[in-house]
TrEMBL record:
Residues in the signal sequence: none
HAMAP family, per database record: NADHX_dehydratase, NADHX_epimerase
Taxonomic classification: Bacteria, Bacillati, Actinomycetota, Actinomycetes, Kitasatosporales
Protein family (similarity comment): Belongs to the NnrD/CARKD family. In the N-terminal section; belongs to the NnrE/AIBP family.
Designated gene of the protein: nnrE
Ranges for domain YjeF N-terminal: 10-212
Protein's name in the database: Bifunctional NAD(P)H-hydrate repair enzyme
């Protein structure tokens, strides 16, 4: 499991550690890790041209000490000071001793130096930052974008919000971010994550609490969650998932939700709704019934909503069931908030940004810009586990535990019907007995991998994604 901690927690851990170490030791650890990463990126340090963008705090200090290390190995290092009178004194002295030079930020000279750089180190601001880049950094950011230099961000790309992943204004785009002690939420959540490039974590010895702000599952975590049928399992013990989806107008949504559900580990899939013919033609193993959910027979979980059109009665009927329920797509619009809140069995809601915005009564851009706040707010309001789909899918539970961020997503998944497959898959894992947050996050993980396998560099349809779930499952449990 990869974890991320808030700035406040990082600061507390830093204070505790600093009290036990000689002054400056922590910064030296950070700078050593940063210099090593820069050397890797450069390949050949000797003779390379390195430009440090240095702000007013310790983030700039890290950059200066790392620059000194690179200068001692023969790099030509120039530091651009954005706040000359507040630049880290020790770091500046170290750089000068190593033969580095200092360039003023004003007057255009700095931009010319950036234009000739092989490597730019962004030490403008780290976890002490608020808001986007300040005006005097903007011409430099332009010069960096125009240049062919590789950009390495120190701790965070400057201009992004460490705790929320928001980008309120201009930020510097990095190819690599070297972060210290732990990931910060902004490195895992869009839009900030996109600015970070790849992320390298340098251990500086911080001791962090057990519960993190964010968690990103990895293969081994998902493998532990996935159901394994025992010798004596019958279909009810493996779980039966009910799918109440599709309409005369959208029969395909039912087919795709069933396709996902059949690959999710439940022992059987029941379908109720007007698309029974289409479902059975494609998947003869489905148990199709034409009464409503109440008359469908025993299920251990329900999925309601994909392609449901305006069938509010079915949504209400499903919400009254005392088994875990997943609400998706049209179901999110049709569900009564009070009926969701009144449920005692777990509820999972799977909105994309537009649906989440409608539920919260805000603009879509607000959700996209502040995904972490939006998913937490929805989970709290509905007393549900909420999976907010997107380039970084987030899963929050009502209790306020760590938010999960799915690391396997791919933009190829932004295709019609892909969400229907996901809801069937997650519903199936719920029927198999996974806790709501695990069912939702394991489903997102497998779905993302399946999307990557299906696309493999070329567009793929939602049914292709469903077919690759088995391959994704195998790759997770065999890793
Ligand atoms: N924690 C750890 O374990 C370790 C931390 N280490 C390092 O220290 C870094 C944190 O250092 P830090 O506390 O000095 O803050 P930092 O980010 O350099 O900001 C400095 C000042 O910048 C200003 N400012 C604010 N917003 C701004 C903006 N948008 N654009 C421009 N300027 C802006 C604001 O001052 P203001 O101008 O508002 O008075 C703020 O106080 C951390 O990221 C890591 O690299 C490692 O060395 C070792 C282990
Ligand atoms: K930075």
């Amino acid at each position: 499991m990869r974890t991320a901690y808030s700035v406040e927690t990082v600061r507390a851990a830093e204070r505790e550690l600093m009290a036990r170490l000689p002054e400056g030791a922590l910064m030296q650890r950070a700078a050593a890790g940063l210099a090593a990463a820069c050397a890797d990126v450069l390949g050949r340090v000797y003779g390379s041209r390195v430009v440090l963008l240095v702000g007013s705090g310790d983030n700039g200090g890290d950059a200066l000490y790392a620059g000194a290390r690179l200068a001692r190995r023969g790099a030509g290092v120039s530091a651009v000071l954005l706040a000359p009178e507040r630049a880290h004194g020790g770091g500046l002295a170290a750089l000068r001793r190593a033969g580095g030079r200092v360039v003023g930020a004003d007057g255009g000279g700095a931009e010319a130096v950036v234009g000739r750089a092989d490597l730019v180190v962004d030490g403008i601001v780290g976890i002490g930052g608020t808001g986007g880049l300040r005006p005097n950094a903007v011409p430099l950011a332009d010069a960096v974008e125009r240049s062919r230099a590789v950009v390495v961000a120190v701790d965070l790309p400057s201009g992004v919000d460490a705790d929320t992943g928001e980008v309120r204004g201009r930020a510097l785009r990095a190819d690599l971010t070297v972060t210290f002690g732990t990931h910060k939420p902004g490195l895992l959540v869009d839009p900030a994550r996109e600015y970070a490039g790849s992320v390298r974590l340098v251990d500086i010895g911080l001791e962090l609490p057990a519960s993190a702000e964010l968690e990103a599952l990895q293969h081994a975590d998902v493998a532990r969650m996935l159901p394994v049928p025992a010798a004596e399992s019958d279909k009810y013990r493996r779980g039966v998932v009910g799918i109440a989806a599709g309409s005369a107008r959208y029969p395909g949504a039912a087919v795709l939700a069933v396709a996902g559900a059949l690959r999710g580990g439940a022992g059987a899939v029941r379908y109720v709704g007007p698309a029974g013919q289409a479902v059975i033609a494609r998947f003869p193993e489905t148990l199709v019934s034409d009464g409503g959910p109440k008359h469908a027979g025993r299920v251990q979980s329900w999925v309601v909503g994909p392609g449901a059109g305006d069938d509010a009665a079915t949504v209400a009927e499903v919400l009254a069931a005392e088994v875990p329920v997943l609400i998706d797509a049209d179901g999110l619009r049709l569900a009564e908030a009070s009926a969701v809140r009144a449920r005692r069995a777990p509820t999972v809601m799977t909105p994309h940004a537009g649906e989440a915005a409608a539920l919260l009564g805000v603009e879509r851009e607000e959700v996209e810009g502040g995904r972490l706040a939006a998913v937490r707010e929805l989970a709290g309001r509905y007393g549900a586990t909420v999976l907010l789909k997107g380039s970084t899918t987030l899963i929050a539970s009502a209790g306020g535990a760590a938010v999960r961020v799915n690391p396997t997503g791919t933009s190829w998944l932004a295709t019609a019907g892909s969400g229907d497959v996901l809801s069937g898959l997650a519903g199936s894992l719920l029927a198999a007995g996974l806790p709501a947050v695990d069912a939702a996050s394991a489903a997102a993980y497998l779905h993302g991998l399946a999307g990557r396998f299906a696309a493999d560099g070329a567009p793929a349809g939602a049914h292709d994604v469903a077919e690759e779930i088995a391959g994704a499952w195998r790759s997770v449990v065999r890793a």
